[in-house]
């Protein structure tokens, strides 16, 4: 993680490596840069993949399910006007709110990724991953997790946590 990366180039550690003939100062710096670049690159790929999956699969799935619920309650009320439809109306409302939260959070993540790709310094990019991208990814995951819990299994585009945990055959 980004917290551990500075330990590579902490002077006491560099001195220890040099003293015991393990690495030269340049080799320690090179190892640090390789690990920092890898950390930043892998995490940025994960963030981009997350944004793509949400835009192309999760948001359309939640919208489709929400639209079906709205159609269902409209049909029920057409047949039986006394039907309250509280469950469906409440769920459609919450899913619509979640879609807006998810959309705003994915746009926020995309903006952070665009800023990330403009950074040339390896330490600065690793720090941005730690301080900006990972928190934005976590913030995006929360409404997606709730949407998963509220969307019918048949409409959800991925295996659920339950499928993954208990679906081994």
Protein model, in words:
The protein is mainly α and 169 residues long. It is built from six helices and no strands. Helix 3 (25-79) runs antiparallel to helix 4 (86-116), helix 3 packs parallel to helix 5 (122-150) and helix 4 (86-116) packs antiparallel against helix 5. The chain is elongated. The two termini are 35 Å apart.
Features:
single chain, 6 helices
Task: Set out the fold topology.
Layout: H1 5-8, H2 11-19, H3 25-79, H4 86-116, H5 122-150, H6 161-166
- Radius of gyration (CA) equals 23 Å
Shape: elongated
User: Beta fraction of the residues?
Assistant: under 5%
User: What level of helicity do the residues show?
Assistant: over 70%
Q: Structural class of the helix and strand makeup?
A: mainly alpha
The mean pLDDT is 94
The low-confidence runs, each spanning 5 or more residues with pLDDT under 50, are none
* Distance N to C terminus: 35 Å
Count of DSSP strands: 0
* Major sheet summary line: none
Helix and strand element order: HHHHHH
Tally of individual helices: 6
């Amino acid at each position: 993680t980004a917290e551990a990366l500075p330990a590579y180039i902490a002077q006491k550690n560099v001195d220890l490596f040099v003293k015991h003939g393990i690495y030269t100062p340049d080799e320690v710096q090179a190892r640090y840069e390789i690990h920092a670049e890898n950390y930043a690159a892998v995490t940025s790929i994960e963030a981009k993949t997350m944004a793509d999956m949400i835009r192309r699969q999760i948001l359309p799935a939640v919208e489709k399910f929400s639209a079906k619920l709205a159609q269902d309650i409209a049909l029920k009320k057409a047949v039986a006007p006394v039907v309250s439809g509280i469950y469906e109306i409440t769920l459609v409302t919450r899913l619509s709110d979640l879609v807006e939260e998810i959309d705003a959070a994915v746009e926020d993540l995309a903006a952070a990724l665009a800023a990330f790709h403009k950074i040339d310094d390896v330490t600065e990019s690793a720090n941005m991953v730690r301080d900006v991208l990972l928190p934005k990814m976590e913030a995006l995951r929360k409404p997606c997790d709730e949407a998963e819990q509220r969307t019918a299994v048949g409409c959800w585009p991925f295996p659920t946590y339950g499928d993954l945990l208990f679906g081994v055959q």
